[in-house]
Write a structure and sequence with these properties.
four-stranded antiparallel β-sheet; 35 strands; mainly beta
Length: 478
């Protein structure tokens, strides 16, 4: 009589021995080999990892798989490819390995996957002047004084607006890049000069990582570290060593180590940081904002030019003055200093970087007539012109030449400024203040505000880009 027993489910080694009889094994149990890693694709707070089973499944052959992140050692399990790992931090770069497990145990890990950086995603919302279709809501002309959703998609991850407030750019989580608004001289990068009142894809690539607007065009970084630009190119701001109009993206040089691009501001200049921490600027340098020590004369640079020789720059942004943060947390500025907008406790113009105070806890800043910066402790500080209450200190006509804190909150995460208005995010809520003559604050009126006022009640906002006549923000899905 046979000693085999019927069993439904996975066999343990003990059950196998009981079913077949001790000492009667013909195959020795052994571990599976390493799976073959495939591709990791980032989402919002997650990544999906593909892989192939190991060439040697081991014995017994029923397999389960576990994907592990680096950093963080965050895991997810499944019985087949693909597997999605959740609980990741948006903005952090991850790689992944996969192991296979059979009843004998867990085999070796696969090779590491490609690196991915999960990014937040949400709906795109717009407010303000819409005379060239720059709000992307498929109409032209009417000002919008309360937030209107741009289409119904909820996969937007990044947005930027021209300081002239006539053109907009955005990236989706699938790596596609989109543009809309004024398209004089091909400044939208869509290979035409036709104005667009709703988002129009730039090419067909899915490898765009960052985008930033200039006064007359835009520039972007791909996930391979290459830098691309397009636009009117009047002052060489495209950066391709010409002043030829470019209506679609052209690569700037051949370097593959570009890491960060800042908004180009009003004065037809561009700003970028490489992975080695070097800072580069190009385009029109009217007031020294390019940090190249050329104050008092209009200089035009048609290709990226390094600022000094330092290798510890982290971020740079510009509206009409330039604010840059180093990896040591110090804040440096240059450019026009009307009414003290550089925060240097004077009204002196600077054409090379000068430090603001001695603190080492700054994380991000944008320079303008009214300027702002955030510290690593979550506080937000403003400086400069306060004609319409743009400093957010509950006062008007009280300009400041050194930074003053806005309220006492320690949960500010990001912000953007126009000429005399600010939009900022605090613990997921969107706040605005400053000039509101066209309803550009999004509060459904035209009343200026001298201290932060919340827009709606949502706490799902994660990025905002404000300019003189309105803002674009990503957050709520409906």
């Amino acid at each position: 009589m046979s000693r085999w027993k019927q069993f439904s489910g996975n066999w343990t080694l003990t059950q196998q021995a009981q079913a077949k009889g001790a000492g009667t094994w013909s195959i020795t149990p052994f571990l599976p080999g390493a799976p073959t890693i495939g591709t990791a694709t980032g989402g919002s707070g997650e990544a999906t990892v593909t892989f192939s089973p190991p060439a040697s499944p081991g014995y017994p052959t029923t397999l389960t798989y576990e994907v592990t992140s680096s950093p963080g050692s965050i895991t997810a399990s499944g019985s087949a490819s693909p597997i999605t790992v959740t609980g990741l931090t948006n903005g952090t770069e991850y790689t992944f390995t996969v192991t296979a497990t059979n009843d004998t145990g867990t085999g070796p890990a696969s090779a590491a996957s490609n690196a991915v950086t999960p990014v937040a995603e949400g709906g795109l919302w717009a407010v303000g002047n819409n005379n060239t279709g720059q709000l992307g809501i498929n109409q032209v002309g009417a000002n919008i004084s309360s937030p209107v959703q741009v289409g119904s998609l909820t996969t937007w991850s990044q947005v930027s607006m021209s300081a002239q407030f006539d053109g907009s750019f955005a990236i989706k989580t699938d790596g596609t890049m989109w543009a809309w608004g004024n398209n004089d001289s091909g400044k939208l990068g869509i290979n035409s000069q036709v104005y667009k009142s709703s988002p129009t894809q730039i090419g067909s690539l899915t490898t765009w990582q960052q985008v930033a607007a200039m006064a007359d065009g835009g520039y972007a970084i791909k996930n391979d570290g290459t830098l691309w630009s397009w636009g009117r190119n009047l002052y060489g701001s495209v950066g391709d060593n010409t002043v030829i109009k470019r209506s679609s993206p052209v690569q700037i040089g051949s370097d593959t180590d570009w890491a960060y691009i800042g908004n180009g501001g009003k004065e037809y200049a561009a700003f970028a940081v490489k992975t080695d921490g070097t800072l580069w600027t190009w385009g029109r340098d009217s007031y020294g904002e390019c940090m190249q020590n050329t104050a008092g004369s209009l200089v035009r640079r048609s290709s990226p030019t390094q600022v000094g020789a330092l290798t510890n720059w982290a971020k740079v942004e510009n509206y009409n003055a330039t604010y840059a943060v180093k990896t040591d947390g110090t804040l440096w500025v240059a450019g026009p200093n009307n009414n003290g907008g550089l925060g240097t406790n004077n009204v002196t113009f600077y054409s090379s970087p000068v430090q603001v105070g001695a603190l080492t806890n700054w994380s991000f800043g944008i320079g303008g007539y009214a300027s702002a910066a955030i510290k690593t402790d979550g506080t937000i500080w403003t400086v400069g012109t306060n004609t319409h209450g743009a400093l957010g200190t509950n006062t008007v006509y009280s300009d400041r030449s050194s930074p003053v804190q806005v309220g006492s909150s320690t949960t500010w995460s990001t912000f953007s400024i126009g000429e005399q208005n600010v939009a900022a995010i605090n613990d997921g809520a969107l706040y605005v203040w400053g000039r509101n003559n066209q309803g550009q604050l999004g509060l459904n009126d035209t009343i200026n505000r001298s201290s932060p006022v919340q827009v709606g009640s949502s706490t799902e906002w994660f990025t905002v880009w404000s300019q003189t006549e309105g803002w674009l923000a990503i957050g709520p899905t409906s």
